[in-house]
Amino acid sequence: MSGLHNTKSKTLSALCALLACICAFMLAACSSSSTQQVSASITDDYQIKVEVPLSGAWSRIEAQCAQTPEMDNATLAYCNIEGDVAVAYFGSLEQGQTYYVRYIGCEGSGSTENKEYSESFGITVSTGQTATGSLLSRDSSANDGVPYALIVGAVVCVLLIVFALLLLVMKVYVSRTSHRIAAIKQLNEDYLPLIGMPTRLMTFPYNLTSKQQFDRFDAEGVILSKAVLEKERFDEMVMHYITAKANLRDYQTHVAQIEPTQFRHKLLANEEARQFAKLRYKRRDSFSLARVVWTYISPKGRNRYSDEAAYGDEMLAAVVSKAESREGEKAVYEAHKAQERAAMTPQMRYDVLARDGYRCVRCGATAEMGAVLHVDHIIPVSKGGKTEMDNLQTLCEDCNLGKGNRYCE
User: Helix, strand, or coil here: 377?
Assistant: First the structure.
């Protein structure tokens, strides 16, 4: 359903943007037509000078002058072209008298000639007097003074609005009458909570102390060890995956059984197919549920190495299955052993030696006495011992060899 709403909003947004552009064009057209005006002025010798901006729609421009707004007994004068305006003069006028003028746009000649008359406006014969009137274009006069661009824009706007309404009506009609859409919505409501996979990713980072450790790092052994040490967490994740996969198969089976609605018109059938495709749940083939990341940075920080291994749902299920077998237990032991050995950093070794006074805790031998000092696990790694300060001690080589793989308190 969200896909349908998104499509509607995008369609309406596009139409609104287009309508805004059309309205801006219409306003510009209207404003441009209203900025040009006919002007009349009184010359020094008390003549009326009429100026009409040129228009490509007319082949000839004339002017009339009369003492009444109805232009009775009007005097006609032909306009001369002066630059980008047509100019006509009227003389023999009485000072202080108001006269009315208008212009005539002519197109064609003879019996086929068309004339368009502008509205008249008055001017009083007095020095310095001026007056203006509206310019009437051929297109606007033919449409009762309404600009042609305004009419075209209005028609386009109406058509776009009708088209948008038809689209919305068609979408709503299909959404409400299609049994196929109703069936897929019901399936989504029943199954989507059961087939979603967890989005939280289990991450296990390791910072290594040498390039050799980095090159030999066993990510599979680590994830196998984690699968045993954190068995409940891994089992829950895998069980969720198995259940979701079974529910997904049921969902897909039911979706395939939904028959299309038999609409009479192909447009309605296509709209139903589009809505159905958007509503149908599409699951990825695999989800990354866990990953192991290992990193090594050289002592001076000049080189940095990093790598990772991601484990999807099926791979993680196989790891958990392997961890439960004897082979898995052995691999876990080896992985745990390698993990604890790798955890012994030079800094930790130095701290243990300094804590024990740089002498064997068993016999007291020191390096000055020729002894080779080792840092030993009190509880051996093979018996579950960890590389922690409380489980480490300083032994000379002889004592360490004598202790062997034993736990001595």
Answer: strand
